[in-house]
Amino acid sequence: MHDIIDFISIKQKKNNEKLHRMFRKANSLQDAKEIDKLVTDKTLVLQDHKLFLAFLKYLEGKDMNPETVFKDVLQLPKHQFEERYRMNWQSVVQLCFTFLAILKENNPEQYIDFIQSN
């Protein structure tokens, strides 16, 4: 069992490093094809839907537009995003990809508009 846990933690660490490399600079994911590839391949593990809904409720309580927050997490450097929103960048990236996966499944046209406008 210990080997399985080590494998999961190593895989998560690699994914986190990949995320950091991809988003360390502003506009590092301007290519809609690259974003779509991450969503389609499910390279980023989708967050629990209850957590996602709770995050949306939190944003609503703060009068923040979820689409704006999700676009900013894809466009702003990590430090700038965290400074502006006072949120953990990595957590919001994960939630953003949950948002994108849901959007792609339920509203493909809006999904395409979102990733192309990024």
Structural features, described:
The protein is mainly α. It has seven helices and no strands.
Structural class: mainly alpha
Radius of gyration: 14 Å
Query: Strand percentage, roughly?
Result: under 5%
> Low-confidence runs (pLDDT<50, min 5 residues)?
none
The largest sheet, given as strand count, sense and whether it forms a barrel, is: none
Q: How many beta strands in the DSSP annotation?
A: 0
Tally of alpha and pi helices: 7
Average pLDDT figure: 78
> SSE order, as H and E?
HHHHHHH
From the structure above, extract its key features.
118 residues; mainly alpha; 7 helices; 77% helix
Question: Topology, please?
Answer:
Blueprint (H helix, E strand, L loop, with lengths): L1 H22 L8 H10 L7 H13 L4 H10 L2 H8 L3 H18 L1 H10 L1
Helix pairs in contact: 2-7, 4-6, 6-7
